[in-house]
Write a structure and sequence with these properties.
It is a single chain. With 150 residues, the protein is α+β, with helices and mostly antiparallel strands. It has two domains: 62 residues, no CATH class; 73 residues, Orthogonal Bundle (Arc Repressor Mutant, subunit A). It is built from five helices and seven strands, in the order ββββαβααββαα. The strands form two sheets. It has a four-stranded antiparallel sheet, with no helix packed on it. A three-stranded antiparallel sheet has the order 5-7-6. The protein is elongated and about 90 Å long.
């Protein structure tokens, strides 16, 4: 006899059908054979294994990415978080620093230049903007005139 305990309810086997006690929210019997339970367990283990393998592959890719100075298009997309199509667009408009290989086919990016490019457009904090506004007003008095310079 096989018994499985889930939280406070106990499942027990009766003629290849796992039955649930009647006081378990009135669900009655589940049509789950021991073989089906094993198959589901194996399927869950395979999914967990493939998920773990995917995560390990990501970690490996990011580790290799961290060690490189020159990045390919795919690596630059992973590094910046931008889509590959958007990086192609930026390259075609010459809006992002890049290099071409000796044959001119492969596009490369310097990781340090990509980092500088990503951090190029800094947004001021409210405090910095207020200080800038105060400095402007102090340094550019209007002398009581309305409108611009005459």
């Amino acid at each position: 006899m096989v018994s499985i305990v889930l939280s406070q309810c106990q499942l027990f086997e009766t003629s290849n059908v796992l039955a649930v006690p009647d006081d378990w929210h009135g669900w009655g019997a589940l049509s789950l054979t021991p073989q089906t339970a094993l198959n589901e367990k194996n399927t869950n283990q395979k999914m967990e294994t493939s998920t773990i393998e995917q995560k390990l592959n990501k970690i490996e890719n990011y580790t290799l990415l961290a060690a490189k100075d020159a990045l390919t298009m795919d690596e630059a997309a992973a590094y910046t978080g931008l889509s590959k199509a958007y990086i192609y667009k930026l390259v075609s408009k010459k809006m992002i620093p890049y290099y071409k290989g000796t044959m001119g086919k492969i596009t490369y990016f310097a990781k340090s230049e990509l980092c500088n490019w990503l951090l190029k457009h800094r947004v001021s904090t409210i405090e910095e903007a207020e200080q800038k506004a105060i400095a402007y007003v102090v340094n550019n008095p209007r002398n009581g005139r309305k409108g611009g310079k005459r």
